[in-house]
């Protein structure tokens, strides 16, 4: 580049001579001094270019910025840490009523002592009571009423009337369990006051009463009839509270996710299939519509808080099973054993998953009725101990259940050319559905049978026509609320980590909204749970989970569609790096030159001042 | 090789950023933690089978994928749990002498394109994006269930991929690349969301082992047909069809499974030991450091079959009595008297032995089917030339430092030109 300045650079040598002679005294050295002020035009120009670059930079930065809806990271953090440190608990009230006992006479115990004994026993039976979804979080609210016939005592704050007035028919009349259950509901219903109080009533009978009968009803109470000692009464009461009412009669007490077959969108599709293995032998049909109306709808209603259930059904032909069976003379039937069960499903021939109603993230539970061909009829399932199965069915967790149903007569009509069309009779169908209902209960993590054998004896669990008793639904709701909230918290955590790890990813408003609503729903679920409203809590927690799942699986989140910052830099730097370098250097150089020239001018000025 | 360049570019950019102090903090925290899945049990099996090539000369890749599809179906994974991604341009290709048929052996005993082939992603739907969507589960709402990988915490997933690959990438239909960190990222997200319990990744491509280098999620087992710098070769040429019909690695995998039926208990280690480097003409590589169980104890049907966990139903829920619906009070449910039928034949096992003729003509290999396309990637030649001068690993660093050195040169030259 050429050195240019305002100062006339190359004057004529002759002229220079004269100039020099003229200004001999005043300007001795042109190299160190100048008489005119240095121009600032070029400096201003180059600085303007530089400043426009600097000013333009934020605009560029803004223009290549991507839209990221703000996610409440701190709230997500606090939500999951709060869930971790303070597990969810439902408030429960337990009420033990002892009729015909006299603790004070035999043991010198008041009702408060009995309550303490029950509480102590309960915490022994339920060691990990701090687990999420449990009652009370360790300290149980137990109230005791002792009615010895002559006197009546109760703990303070107990809501039960004392003495218990519940008809005089308790012992005299022979009431069926169902009627007894209804009667207790009438008597204790007003006591409960609509809340979630669980009661156990122990009636002390005479010695000749025979064996002790312990029944858990279909509402929220249980009763023990017969001759029991005071100790036994206390331990039985505690066991019913701790094991049955709080744990659903299940031994395993962890939340197993395989027993939460609810889709991420809070829906279950129950798909009923009737499989005719060999339609040339016989073709069975069923009146599914009727079953749906009379048997299934109450169940769906009962499970409404836990999942949004839809039902569909199909009848399939030519669906042989894929495992083998053998003829057994002793049982007089074809036998398949439990170790063959994993291979029973013929996934190549059974086209079960034909649902069009099920959305992408719904859960489909297959409930299959298999009708064997004439060649392998009757088909029975043999248990490992050599007995035949009573139900002839099995489940596979998270998938569904299969029941083998044998026709009444295994003789094939050889004469007729037409297919032998039959319909399963209503009686048989109902029995079939009792098995299927047992399977559905198993799939949801409850027991299929109605007997609970505990430490202190066996308890009959009265069944409900809705498939699930009220206390079972409480247990299920509690578990689902916990599972949903935990799943929601972990998904939120995953989402926030994912979003933070991809700083160049667009986060559309929808995701932000879903996260916000999900957190709100989770808050609602927690507050409902703390006030003991199981259903609303289950519904809110389901919502929270499904919203956050939608956010996490939003199709716009794809790491491949977004560039990292390095990519962005690589794109823009070829445009700007070479130009910026020159602009900065030019501005620096101009600044330096101006300073230099200004120094010269100042030196001349100083000299002038001295001269003059 | 393109990816190699990209990485260098990225690295250089990082250095540049540091040099210029351009931006303070680049948050690149990919610290996921895996949720515990010890308590869950294995409940179902899924398979994702991907053929990433198209065009007639890649016939063998489609045959590979279809053969594996038949194998897993035979071993019990239902169609609704298999995601099959296939260019699917072979069966009806104008150059196919056997229309609507695909063979993986020159004896033409088994038509792989027989009945019941459910292709979920076909033709141009086989893209990196769709593949990653299948893995991560991020679909548009309209995508039907059959196209989704609906696995859960109890799922074992088999992921099989075949095509043309190179150092840390796998080409998708000659237009895109799946890079090893894309795969690792997708797997990490799957783990994070509990979309699998165990995952077996099986890749039959050149330099397959490089595709696993970024994986870091526990529960993942990976097996590739070749080490870094090795090619995967085809097994034999079918002179009728005119192209190679199967790759060596897949061929010997199928030969192993041909001996198995659904009840077999052969372990994964026996599968891995069955690969003979001399027959494969490459070294099968397996990465097991992320996998907790001992391979000797894991049956292959854990991934290639479908073994269900079953629980017997003890009793019916008898209290479901509804007076409106039949008044049956009989307690016995299935205790009817049976007429003792004279049919007591046990169903014979007539498993289709699909690959019974695979092992024939083992020693007949041909040069024509070699994986020449792998070598056709432009950068490969460069790395070969450079490899003579410098060792393979230092190439990256050499280029990186070269690029960094260019920066002062740029400044210097600008200064000079003043």
From TrEMBL, chain A:
Its main location: endoplasmic reticulum. Signal peptide: none annotated. The chain crosses the membrane at residues 43-61, 569-588. It holds the Pfam family PIG-S. One of its GO terms (biological process) is attachment of GPI anchor to protein. It is found in: Endoplasmic reticulum membrane. Belongs to the PIGS family. This is GPI transamidase component PIG-S. The lineage of its organism: Eukaryota, Viridiplantae, Streptophyta, Embryophyta, Tracheophyta.
From TrEMBL, chain B:
The chain crosses the membrane at residues 395-416. It comes from the Eukaryota. GO terms for molecular function: GPI-anchor transamidase activity. Pathway: Glycolipid biosynthesis; glycosylphosphatidylinositol-anchor biosynthesis. InterPro entries: GPI_transamidase, Peptidase_C13. PANTHER family: GPI-ANCHOR TRANSAMIDASE. Belongs to the peptidase C13 family. This is GPI-anchor transamidase. It comes from Arachis hypogaea (Peanut).
